[in-house]
Amino acid sequence: MKRIKTDFFEKIFYNNKFLFVLSLILSITLWATVKINYSENTTRTITEVKATIDNTLASENDFVPFVEKGGLNVDVEVSGKSYNINSLKKDDIIVEASSGYIDSAGYKVLTFSARSNETGVDITSVNPSSVTVFFDRKANDAFNVEANIKNTEALESTDGYFVGKPVPSLSTVNVSGPASVIENLKKVSFVAKVDKSLLPLTQTIDVPATISYETDSKRGKEFLVCSDVGDKSNPATITIPVSKLKTVKTTVKFVGQPKYYDENPPRVVVDPAQVEISYNPTDEEYDSYNVATIDFSKLQSGKNTFEFGVDEKNAASLVDKSIKTFKVTVDLGSVSETAIDASAANIVFLNQSKDHKYTASLKNMGLDTVTIIGPKRSLEKITADMLQIEINVSSLDTSLSGYQRVSISNISIRSEEINDCWVYGSYRAKVAVSEKK
Fold first, then answer.
1. With contact defined as beta carbons under 8 Å apart, do 153 and 199 qualify?
2. 277 φ, ψ to 5°?
3. Which of these, 22, 3, 25, lies nearest to 12 by C-alpha position?
4. How confident is residue 49, by pLDDT bands cut at 50, 70 and 90?
5. What is the reported pLDDT for 333?
6. What is the predicted pLDDT for the residue at 41?
């Protein structure tokens, strides 16, 4: 057995290929050892090291440093043995600049100094070697915002469309920064440019904007910050409203009309008979402008004349702002009228509470002479038992005892045969509320 082992090792050591590989491994090991432990120093640059400012003395007078974004990022060149600097990280390098004593606002150039936490590492250079800092007290204030569209041709109206005044996404903003700059800040603007491919504008658009600060000088202006807008979740934008223009006829809407008048509306004259309106192009098209809604209970025989002010809630706006009122005449021709005693009519309570019961009294409320209007032949057929009085009791105070006065919502004529008559005027009733037992 001993002879076999001896023969094996003799074969290995007398094998030229094995000796070549072994020599190569030993050479590399020897070279690496010498390189690491005895070679000359090498260098390495560590990028984007975050520097700090020691403003201990400045803070005694409440002065703080204002630095442009990225102004404290530096590249540090280090030297030393490879095994010392190759494993070096950003956190192992400390870069600092000291403010010294500050008692007035202004720019100051500070020189960076750097050191390493690791032994055997020398700092060769810092790039940039200094930073320009603006020292001032910090302030915050609110300012109005103006919208500024750079290419004014975007605000020009074209045939059939009107371009309104641009509106910033915020009417006011809070601006923070150096106190001396905030004090001299005159105006905050959202500035935008409309892509020429969108011109001329035929619909309302939102345009991304940048924030501009107008001050007496450029001193410290770059350090102003608007905390309300500017990020992805709440960007600064300008809305340019665009309205479509159209000339349409004026009309009125009727409610409470008998069924007959759904297909046979009364003759209506509106002055002015037509108007030019502006409206959102994405809305439905407008063929008319509704002046007012008229309840048939306010219409009598013959010509009924009304005057209505401009409805500011209308989705379409009048272009001519001098129009303040509309005169409306509703001509019902030669319909007749009659008076009927409705004090014994059927009563319906609307919006009742399930825990209460309601009792109505119609006496001495003018319901003994209810005026009904319509063609004479139809009026002759109407009897008191055809009338139904509807009373909305939702507004009544359930804690009160006794009768409470309430307006009658509607008095209708319950007849399939009579569909061209209506009750004229408004009426009241007395209603008592009590708890159900």
1. yes
2. -120, 160
3. 22
4. very high
5. 87
6. 79
Residue 37 pLDDT > 80: no
E strand spans, 200-316: 205-208, 210-215, 225-226, 237-240, 242-255, 267-271, 274-279, 288-295, 303-309
CA atoms within 13 A of residue 316's CA, in its CB half-sphere: 24
**Measured at the alpha carbon of residue 74, what is the angle toward residues 44 and 118, in degrees to the nearest 5?**
50
> For 379-421, how does the pLDDT look when each residue is reduced to its tens digit (9 = 90+)?
999 999 999 999 999 999 999 989 999 999 999 999 989 999 9
What are the DSSP E strand ranges found in 323-418? 325-331, 336-340, 346-350, 356-361, 370-374, 387-392, 403-413
Q: Which tens digit of pLDDT belongs to each residue from 14-36?
A: 566 666 666 777 767 766 655 55
pTM recorded for the entire structure:
0.63
Structure tokens at 223: 């350090």
Mean pLDDT throughout 108-125? 91
Q: Which helix (H) or strand (E) holds 189?
A: strand 185-192
| 229 pLDDT higher than 80 | yes
Residue 403 is given by DSSP the state E
Backbone phi, psi, residue 352, to 5° = -75, 150
Neighbouring-strand partners of residue 42: 80
Task: Report the C-alpha gap between 327 and 305 in whole angstroms.
Answer: 7
The predicted-structure confidence for 181-199, as pLDDT tens digits, reads as follows 999 999 999 999 999 999 9
Q: How far apart are CA 178 and CA 137, in angstroms?
A: 6
Residue pair 115/81 in contact by the 8 Å Cβ criterion: no
What mean pLDDT, rounded, does the chain reach?
90
The span from the CA of 373 to the CA of 340, in Å, is: 11
Query: Encoding tokens for residue 203?
Result: 């619909």
Q: Which two tokens stand for residue 73?
A: 């990022």
> Left (φ > 0), alpha (ψ -120 to 50) or beta: where does 409 sit?
alpha
Stretch among 39-43, 260-264, 311-315 having the lowest mean pLDDT: 39-43
| Residues 6 or more apart whose Cβ sits within 8 Å of residue 42 | 79, 80, 81, 82, 85
d(CA 421, CA 258) in angstroms, rounded, equals: 6
As a whole number of Å, the CA-based R_g of the chain is 45
